Amino acid sequence: MDHYGDNVATSPSRVDGAQSIARALRVLRTVARTAQEGAGLLALTRETGMNKPTVHRLLAALAAEGMVEQDPVTRRYFLGPECHVLGHIASQRHGLARLAADTVANLAHTCGDSAFFSIRRHVFAVCVLREDGDYPLKTHALRPGDRHPLGVGAGSLAMLAALPDDEVDACLHANAALIEQRYPNYSPALLRAQVSEARAQGYAANRGLIVPGSWGIGVPVRGADGQVAGALSIAAIESRLDEERQFQLAKLLSKEAKKLESLAESAGVLRKDSAAARAAPDEHRRKSQGRTPGDITMRGENHA
């Protein structure tokens, strides 16, 4: 009897099929990132790097399965009803984002700026929740569905810094080519320095490296096993995140992260989400010898 691993390299139909699935998922994720405004065919072609006929063919296949739908007036594409069904089913197992909704809303209401919840998926961070506060000037650097290499962005950096050193190395190695290609302000050396800084000060900071003038801070959210499952973060224009306010908001983030961890642990969610987050090929899981943002007392915090 043949084994899949024995034939995958020599079976053109299997390779082509896998490539088609990967391309369809790339299109689907790109549509998801557009949230309420939808995505046009030309934008999807540009964002995915595929040619127009291929994107159109994949969209037609996804639409036939209810995964996307097209607005008859604007001709833009949106996530379809089948995505909602699958998402609802998946939330029963991976429900951390659902539990984090009130936390993110509370953060945005309290600080007045934009608050986020991101989850770890292998060597990437994916934003799943965003809530805007009432301050009129907002940053638009991160939207639900956006996916960045671990370390790129405040919440993403908080997750990377909370990992053991060998996992940090593995993530940076896996993402090195992508970072060089798409993130000109980043480098492995810079990310290592930022990891050290985040561990020392107790929170991660992004000082406008993705979008100039858009700053952010973040802290990790851990599972019951101590593993990283996600991150809470706040983003604002540079003038609203001076050093003193960073410390104050970091304390708020840390407090809300601990509350979310307790809530999720009682619901049995974090055990599942942290396991799913770190499930990736060649990933190391040895215990870190260094400090992490979740372990460090933040400056100015009173433990009397």
UniProtKB/TrEMBL annotation:
GO molecular function, one term: DNA binding
Keyword Transcription set for record: yes
Name assigned to this protein: Transcriptional regulator
GO biological process: negative regulation of DNA-templated transcription
Keyword Transcription regulation: yes
Residue stretches making up the HTH iclR-type domain: 18-81
Region (Disordered) residue spans: 263-304
Species classification: Bacteria, Pseudomonadati, Pseudomonadota, Betaproteobacteria, Burkholderiales
Superkingdom, taxonomy of origin: Bacteria
Alphabetized SUPFAM superfamilies for the sequence: GAF domain-like, Winged helix' DNA-binding domain
